[in-house]
Amino acid sequence: MKELNVSATVENIPVVTAFVDEQLKALDCPVKAKAQIDIVIDEIFSNIARYAYNPEVGEATVRFEVQENPLSVIITFIDGGVPYNPLTAAEPDTGLSAKERSVGGLGLFIVRKSMDDITYSYEGGKNILTVRKNIGKG
Amino acid sequence: MTIEKIAEGTKLTITLIGRMDTITAPQLEVELKQSISGVEELVLDLAGLEYLSSAGLRVLLAAQKVMNRQGSMVVKNVNETIMEIFEVTGFVDVLTIE
């Protein structure tokens, strides 16, 4: 297991992405799965940066683990901000025209659609959001 | 993300290279604010774009809304990862993808 502790700021999204990408590279992760994981980091960490401690700045932890059979990566985002369960967020209406559309809620929707598993818990004053992505070939 | 643009009369072609995410999407927003006035045909070439997140979708949607009023917008050379994002979010019905 690898772990990164950083301030939960939008400016640190590239730091989190670089940390995860380094692990993915060592695992020979397929290009598409890597892109999907990078997108998920952007969606989740930007949410934490904007809402968890707002208007204060707090700390966040990103944990990276690998699971075998099938080969998958597990990324856990932990923050001590306001309790927020993204799994209870309403699904956006994806059938609307450009005029009627807004992009609220789309980020978490993308997370749910591109990961193989997503779990949330609130323990010891912490939001713990875990995503799992199968990165095995084929 | 790198943004390249070619203006030919009322046609504007913008090529995006890299990643369009929370940090970089505002670059395109600023570029469009400066350049979109008087444009009747907007072409967004994504051949060099690795991926985009919802921050990128937000900017594309805003551009589409402007172009619906003043002309047309086409998004081209979309890779598989980005196409899936457009599909799951319903953007395939909002954008004109070539």
Describe, in plain words, how this protein is organized in 3D.
The complex is a heterodimer of chains A (138) and B (98). Chain A is an alpha+beta fold and 138 residues long. Chain A is built from 3 helices and 5 strands. Chain A has one domain (2-134): Histidine kinase-like ATPase, C-terminal domain (Heat Shock Protein 90, 2-Layer Sandwich), CATH 3.30.565. Chain A is 33% helix and 28% strand. In chain A, strand 4 (117-123) and strand 5 form a beta hairpin. In chain A, helix 1 (13-26) runs antiparallel to helix 2 and helix 2 (31-52) runs antiparallel to helix 3. With 98 residues, chain B is of the alpha/beta class. Chain B has one domain (2-79): Transcription Regulator spoIIAA. In chain B, helix 1 (25-35) runs parallel beside helix 2. The longest helix of chain B has 17 residues, at 54-70. In chain B, 42% of the residues are buried.
Characteristic key phrases:
heterodimer, A: 138 residues, alpha+beta, Heat Shock Protein 90, 5-stranded antiparallel sheet, 5 strands, 28% strand, B: 98 residues, alpha/beta, Transcription Regulator spoIIAA, 4-stranded mixed sheet, 4 helices, 4 strands, 35% strand, globular
- Give the overall average pLDDT of chain B: 97
Superfamily (CATH H level) name of chain A: Histidine kinase-like ATPase, C-terminal domain
Number of domains of chain B: 1
- Number-wise, the strands of chain B total 4
Could you name the CATH topology of chain A? Heat Shock Protein 90
Residue runs with pLDDT of under 50 for 5 or more positions of chain A: none
What spatial order of strands do you see in the largest sheet of chain B? 1-2-3-4
**How would you spell out the order of helices and strands of chain B?**
EEHEHEHH
Structural class of chain A: alpha+beta
What about the largest sheet of chain A? 5 strands, antiparallel
